[in-house]
Every structure is written in C-alpha cells, then in structure tokens.
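Ligand: 2'-deoxyinosine 5'-triphosphate. Inputs:
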Amino acid sequence: MSRRLEGKRLLIATHNAGKLKEIGALLAPYGIECLSAGALGLPEPEETGITFAENALLKARAAAKAAQIPALADDSGLSVTALGGRPGVYTADWAERQWFEGPLGRDWYMAMGKVEGLLCEAGTEVDRSCWFSCVLALAWPEGDSVVYEGRVHGTYSWPPRGTMGFGYDPVFVPQGRDVTFAELPPEEKHRISHRADAFAKLVADQFGH
Ligand SMILES: O=c1nc[nH]c2c1ncn2[C@H]1C[C@H](O)[C@@H](COP(=O)(O)OP(=O)(O)OP(=O)(O)O)O1
Ligand SMILES: [Mg+2]
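Predicted complex:
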C-alpha cells in the first residue's frame, strides 16, 4: 500500500499558475493547505526525464527535499496521434519563453500553430485525434513517493477558441462535446480532464476508506 498524507500541509511543486489554480480547486474539498513552489521561491528543476512519470517524480522529490514537507507535482502534455504522440513530454518546450509574456510566460499561440502546421503538412484528411495526459507525483522528504496517471481523449481543433483555462486548452475539444476546454467553465473541465482523472485516483488512494 502506498504511503498516505498525514498532515494538512502540501507543497504544490509547480511554477505554472494555470495548473496551480486547477490543483487548488481539485484539492479544495479535502481540507488541504496548499503552499506553492513559486511562492516559496523554490527553483524550477530541469525536466530531464523522457516520461511524464519521471518528470513528475523529479519535480515532486526536489520540492519535498528542499521544503521538508510532502510535495505534489504534475507533469502533463498533449499527444497527437498523427504526430506519433508528439509533443507529449515536450509540450511545454514547444511553447518558447517570450519576454513579452512575462518572466515565466510561454507563447502558447505559436506552439498551437506549430502543431497545426504539422497536421496540415500531413494532409487535409489527417486524423485529428489527440489526448492529454497528466501524471501526479506525491513525494515525502524521507524519500517515499507514489504516482497517479490520468488521460482525456479529444480532437485537435483549429482555429483556437475560448479564453478560459491555460496552455493548449483553446484547441482541445474533448470527446462527446463540441466546445474546447477553453470554452468550458472550470467546474466542467474538472469533471472530465486528464488532471481530474489522475486526481480521482489520488483521492481514492490517499483519502479513501
Ligand atoms: O489542462 C491543460 N490544458 C492545457 N494545456 C495543458 C494542460 N495540462 C498540460 N498542458 C500543457 C501546457 C503545459 O505547460 C504542458 C505541461 O508541461 P509541464 O512541464 O507539465 O508544466 P509546466 O512546465 O507548464 O509547469 P511545471 O512543470 O512547473 O508544473 O502541457
Ligand atoms: Mg515544466
């Protein structure tokens, strides 16, 4: 059985404001006091892993060790079937950092355009199916850790639509819907997203009876 969270304090090991907001909302019902890696001034570790799990563990372990409290990290990304699963673990890297987006800002429009460009090169009848993955890693300062994985399938849609959410949300239409994640109110995204799917597993394992 995996180790369980005993205390109320949990460090959220992310430097992405969009993720932090979603993780805070998903943890809200469980009485957890969330601290953020950004607010504590922890450095952003280099993501050298080649899988979501490796990167999530790397981020959670670094934060738990630095702050000496349990830490939760999220490594996620978009995989496009016709592109052989790219950008996948490199989803954030495809959005280059831009000075005009602020200190940690990335150019999501350029990144979404890059994926669209590759799909267009592949032909007009190209398969637009894709999926978001999310791996959550919990790590304790003593070295224990556990991971939970979630997914959501959908279609890569162009042009981008909607203003809610973050990252690639404006191009992702979840299966069975005709709006993008960026057009869905947060509570609806939280019912079906890859992050919600991974959280359901975390909650069952950590807070279940
Ligand atoms: O729900 C989502 N809606 C839209 N886009 C998303 C989502 N979930 C992940 N994504 C994209 C953007 C993110 O930047 C990248 C993950 O990269 P990833 O390294 O895990 O996150 P990050 O560098 O932005 O923040 P950090 O590592 O500090 O947690 O995939
Ligand atoms: Mg990252």
